Write the C-alpha cells for this entry.
Amino acid sequence: MSLFKYRIRTLIKYRSLIWELVRRDLKLKYRRSFFGYAWSVLNPLLIMIVLTTVFSMMFKKQIENYPVYLLTGRMLHEFLKNSTTSGMKSIPKNSSLLKKVYIPKYIFTLSQITSCMVDFVLSLGALFIVMIATRAPFPPTMLLMPVVIIQIYIFCCGLGFLLAQLCVFFRDIQYIYQAVMTALFYLTPIVYPLSRLKKQKELVFFIKHLNPLYYYVVQFRAIVYQGKLPSMYYFVGGWLIAFAMLVIGVYFFQKYKDKFILYI
C-alpha cells in the first residue's frame, strides 16, 4: 500500500510536466498544418466517407445508419492503435532527455497516451456532425460516453506500458504490432455486423469473449448508436480487462525500467 501511495504522490508531483508534455505532443502533431486541430474532426470524417462508400452497399440491409455504426467502432480502434503505438515509442523517443535529468520514465509513456486521448475526445466532433447529418437521435445514454472512454484509456495505459518496455529491448516489436492492430481491426465488428459470422462459431466466441476491443466497442455502440445501457457482462468485463492490463503493464514496466538506460 505504501508503494501505491508513493506512486500516486509522484504522479501528482509531476502533473504539470505531464500536461506540458501532452501540450507539446499535440502541438508537434499539428505543427505547420493548415487546418490545425480541425484535422481531429476532418480525418475521421474523410475516412468514414471512404469506408461508407465501400461497405455501405454490402451491409445496408443489415445495418441502419451505417455511418454512425462505422464511426462508433472505428474511432475506438484508432484511439487504441494510436495511443499504444505512441506509448510504445515513448522511451526511445525521449532517450536524450532521460540521459540528462531524472524524470520517472513512465511519465513519457503516460503523456503520449494522454495526448492521444485528448485528440480522441476532439475527434468526437466528427461523430456528432455525422449524427446530425444523418438525423440520428442523441439518446440520453450518450452521457455515459466518459465511462467507456475512461475504461479504454486505462486499458491503453496498461498496454502502452507493456509495449514501451518491450520496445526498448526489441525495436522490431513496432512492426509486429502494426500487423496485430490491422488484424484486430478486421477481427472486430467495425465495418461489418457480427451476425455475418454466425456460422463461424469459434471466431464469434473469440470476438465476443477474448477480443478486448470488442468490450469497449459494444458498450460505446449501445449508448451512442442504440440508445440503451450496455450489457452488464461487457460493462463489468471492460473494467476488469482495463485494470488487469494496467496491473500487468505497470508490473513489467517497473521491473525493467532500470535497464532502459543501457539500451536507449
User: Anything to note?
Assistant: The radius of gyration is 19 Å. The CA atoms of residues 75 and 259 lie 35 Å apart. Residues 106-133 form the longest helix (28 residues). The chain has one domain: 2-262.
